[in-house]
Amino acid sequence: MMVLSVLQKGLISYNGCLASHPLVTKSCTSAVTAGLGDYLGQLISRQHTVDLCSIARYATFGLLVTGPLAHHFYLLLDHLVRPGERGAAIKRLLIERFGFAPLLLFLSFYLLSRMEYRSLFANFVALFWIMYLANKRRQAVKKD
């Protein structure tokens, strides 16, 4: 019962911050989520040491790019497609998937590689190589 009370108070406080300072709250949430995601990824991949610089890069990207960009994109989306409009959900989904998602993916590849002092070209080659190998493996499993 006490845990529920603490969680409820935390949620009320978070919602209050969202109402009073939406951009800052969303940016900080994005930073924590990105940093935690990178940390958990390192734990899952069983690295011997935790790369704090990597966690800081992802948290910085969340704070300075993902949070503000998502905040402003969804405000713009609310103006472009009114929520009560006919077919609004599918329109919003299509705009987000074909407009915002590719932009955010490109920015994450570009900016995170720059923060790691790697080239964008090397990241794309690595991505397509992984996709190629996964496809070959899937085809081999399919034949068996």
UniProtKB/TrEMBL annotation:
Similarity comment: family membership: Belongs to the peroxisomal membrane protein PXMP2/4 family.
Places the protein is found: Membrane
Family annotation (PANTHER family): PEROXISOMAL MEMBRANE PROTEIN 2 (PTHR11266:SF80), PEROXISOMAL MEMBRANE PROTEIN 2, PXMP2 MPV17 (PTHR11266)
Keywords: Membrane, Transmembrane, Transmembrane helix
Membrane topology qualifier: Multi-pass membrane protein
Span of the signal peptide: none
Name of the protein in its database record: Peroxisomal membrane protein 2
Species annotation: Scylla olivacea
Keyword Cell wall biogenesis/degradation belongs to the record: no
This protein's record includes keyword Membrane: yes
Domain of life: Eukaryota
